[in-house]
UniProtKB/TrEMBL annotation:
It comes from Alkalicoccobacillus plakortidis. This is Uncharacterized protein. It comes from the Bacteria.
Length: 64
């Protein structure tokens, strides 16, 4: 693939809503794609960490 040999990458983003929607970002610099991915991963971790902790605490309370 020509894009990867010159340091380009593509991203595919999917929503989790109904209906699922897809967005494609093609042929951006590999480092920019990596930067976006890391930013998004951090955002998801921050936003859902509280939810996950609440869910675990709730399940522990139900078991007690």
């Amino acid at each position: 693939m020509v894009a990867t040999s010159v340091g380009l990458a593509s991203l595919q983003i999917a929503t989790r809503g109904k209906p699922v929607e897809y967005t494609f970002i093609k042929d951006i610099p590999r480092e920019e794609a990596r930067s976006y991915y890391l930013w998004f991963a951090e955002l998801i971790q921050k936003n859902y960490q509280g939810y996950t902790n609440q869910q675990v605490e709730s399940e522990n309370e139900e078991e007690a």
